[in-house]
Amino acid sequence: MVQVLYFAALRELVGLSEEALEVPENVRTVLEFVQHLQRVRPVLAGQMASVRVALDETFAADSDMLKGVQTVALIPPVAGG
């Protein structure tokens, strides 16, 4: 189980700022997690291409492993003026 943190527009889409999510054993990498999340939360389908993922407060690559991770933060691009 991991704690998923949703920021900015993703928080609005999902309607939650965070949730505990069960991760299947076959989901091992960040990319696999993002694919799984889009199945669990269909509202995120097609919205994750430019989202940065952080594992336990450290930005991660798609190939990074989830083993031992407690928190996954999903951070969309932020525009400002």
Report on this model:
With 81 residues, the protein is α+β, with helices and mostly antiparallel strands. The protein has one domain (2-75): Roll (Ubiquitin-like (UB roll)). Helix content is 22%, strand content 26%. It is built from two helices and five strands; from the N terminus they run E-H-E-H-E-E-E. It has helices spanning 8-14, 30-40, and strands spanning 2-6, 18-21, 52-55, 58-60, 71-75. The chain has a five-stranded mixed sheet with strand order 2-1-5-3-4. The longest helix has 11 residues, at 30-40. The radius of gyration is 12 Å and the shape is globular. The mean pLDDT is 95.
How would you concisely characterize the structure shown here?
Helices cover 22% and strands 26% of the residues. The protein has 81 residues and is of the alpha+beta class.
Question: What are the key terms here?
Answer:
single chain, 81 residues, alpha+beta, five-stranded mixed beta sheet, 2 helices, 5 strands
